[in-house]
Batch of 2 targets.
Target 1
Amino acid sequence: MDKVRKFIWFPTPYHSILLWLVWQILHDFSRGHMVLGAVFAIVIPWIVAPLSEKEPVAKNPLTVLRYTFRLLFDIVLSNYDVAKRVLQSNRSLRPAFIAVPLAINEPLPLTIFTSSVSLTPGTVSVELSDDRQWLYVHVLHLEDEQQLINLIKRRYEAPLKEIFGC
Amino acid sequence: MTVFLEAVVSVLLVLGSIVMLVGSIGLAKFPDYFTRLHAPAKSSTLGVGCILIASMIFFSVQLGHVNFKEALISMFLLITAPVAAHMLAKAGLHYKVNMKDNTQNQQLAKKAYLHQSPDEK
């Protein structure tokens, strides 16, 4: 990455919009804060942009929306699942570690992927291998290892690959 | 505030509280460090999410305009909760905490501690 870059007015336009919107929500859309938020939305990316690497941008907003809703649905399911295990006896619990082979290795999709795994039924992502080929996952109750790995790959990894096109 | 909205808000509050309660019970009763991690990591997002949606509806009606602050809180929570769970799990690996005896694939925990691939020697 080149350290000295040309001056750009909006190095990260999406982040600027997000920053401005968050500022407005926090201050109930008053006029003064609209101006102040705009100043922040312009100045902060100037300072921060040289520090961050270029992130891949989602190609298709519709798939992002679909992924978000699927994730929210799965969070509800996972709560039901964990609640069931909480109310059962500890003896029937069969925790396990599994290793999931990864097909994505860019930082942003990988972060979203591991976070999704942590939020969904009975799995918490524990560690990444150094070569970014394997994700170690702790499972609360494991029935069929291969089936679970396939499910994780199909349900979260495939759509993320589609979204970021990597 | 109509009866219907009040009912919705109450149901969401009760639901959120139940989810959080179950999460807390799980934290107390699960047998080892890693299984204990599961309950709060999941219930905190849904439980707090339900309560925040209830709060959003209540104050939107009360103040007469749509209130987005709670949506913001739940979004930040959704981003940070899995990171916290991940860091706790990493710390657990680092300190080699005891696992439940019948944990399957315990050799993978050692590989994960060394950041290796599972098939490496």
Target 2
Amino acid sequence: MKVVLSELTKHFPAPKKKGEVVAVDHFSFEIPDGSLIGLLGPSGCGKSTTLNMICGLQKPTSGKIFFGEKDVTDLPPEKRGVGMVFQNYALYPHLTVLDNILFPLENLKGKEKLKKEEKMERALTCARLVQIEGLLDRRPAELSGGQQQRVAIARALVKMPGVLLLDEPLSNLDARLRLQTREEIRRIQKETGITTVFVTHDQEEAMSISDCIVVMKEGVAQQIGAPQQVYDDPANLFVAKFLGTPPINVFEGRVEKGRLYIGNEDVLSVSGAEDGKVFVGIRPEGFVPDEKGTFTCTLKGVEVMGRDVSIVAQHPLCGSGAIRAIVSSEQGRAVDLSSSSVRFRLKSEKVFLFDGESQERIRVK
Amino acid sequence: MERNQKKGWLYLLPALLFVAVFLVYPLIDVLIYSVQEGYNSASQEFFGWGSYNYSYVLRDPYFLQALKNTLVLVFLTVPASTLLSLLISLALSSIKKLRKLFQTVYFLPYVTNTLAVGMVFMILFDQTEYSNGLVNLILEGVGFSPVDFIEGPYWAKMLVLCVYTVWTVMPFKILVLTSALASVKEEYYSAARIDGTSRFRIFYKITLPMISPMLFYLVITGFIGAFKAYGDAVALFGVNLNAAEMNTIVGYIYDMLYGDSGGYPSYAAAAAIVLFVIVLTVTVINLLVRKKHVFNG
């Protein structure tokens, strides 16, 4: 089912102060049927509020929500046909796995009411889908975090919702399980073809499985697009900083007559950009160690990571303490470790310019 | 492990000693008293061993009256007070404004002296030369004839005693239940709402099982507390409870020891053992029920 958010806005009364906090600000977005969407942002950016408005636990201050063609803005959660997986799973601890999965089905009334065998069949189908059919008699406390997660997904899917919502689905899992589970979520989503929205603060998580990510900040959607596209073409400094590990390196620079300067060094040709102060964002993979390079940094060390090498350096105009450049191991070996400085050539497609004031992206040809 | 066990016992020792001296020893002593026939407390002599004390107590109309009163009290006030407390706690947890105020109001009886409460109940229920009491005033207002709640018919006196007991035990139950309700995570309710669970089903299927350990604790302690009732009856009907037909088992035991008809430690001991057996039985039944129906975290 297609989900359309139109000018969605949510205000909360500010605690202990007069006035209001704007949690979500005129957010419009059309989620295509059957896609997996990641709402991404730091804590307090309004992503969970957006999710809660989609499921109906919170009412928008203004704006509309449509499921397909149907306006569901004023519908209570139970009438929307959504399945939700909570951050802490919210499995009922006194019920067995099977009873947890059956719970939503037992709420059905009137025409929708199912026979006992039908309920069991649907519960078992869902259990098989998330591969927990061997755990049906256990209580949630007897399951690992990953298993609980699966039960929660099964419970959300059992009533065949039009939309599946996941709130920080991986935050309670350890690193290894996280990798595994995110693949699992992707698989289940593809198998069921259900429109899915999930919330996360972990950019890697969002990038790795989403068809489309929405980067949010202070209630405003900063950029919407396919993960790779957003990574390669960030709309502003915030988005550029938020995506990517290690994070993008940001320098204060200036544009003069189509040339980009960081300090006194002329590092790149940027035709089309107006003269003035800019922020320069350089992805870690945008550095190429080159003795003839025009960009000089203080060398701090080289970290070997196996497949590639991370060069740690410093620059007085870099906002954060250290610069990280990811290079291939051959290039890394070529760096003279006894030297106190390292010179780089920059890959122009990995260098982004942002306005010195508004921090919006400056496009260059 | 070995060393730790020794340490463990060492730490337990003070409490063990205390329990042994003040609970286990007296219990055994009472048991011995209860089977000594014709015990004379002045000469500390007795005729022989036997069950005469029990047969006397179990045939004593005062004891049977006390037993009946206690059972009525237990089986009326424990369910009533637990149910009422649950309703009030649910109401308290569902309001936001004035919650603190109401919590305080409901907790007040807990910190009020039994006898002070007794006096308030006198004003409410007692008939004097000047007034029929507040409750009678209301009864007359809606067209009933006044009832003497303190010296009148048995049911009226029992009613007052039950109301009094319920009222005094509720604050603690409300306190426990409101915190139990608050400990049920909001997420469960959100999850249930999204799944379209009706309010009643949410309560019955989620809230109730989750607070059931606390609820059960209140029922057990409630039963035990009600079996030991005595002070409340005294506060309402004075010390001569046998005459008022309002005695309780504990009251009977006390009277047998120190009352006007007192001086019979053997009968008192037998009555105490009977009470002990009853409380033990009820508690064991409770525990068996618990195993079947209560969810343990």
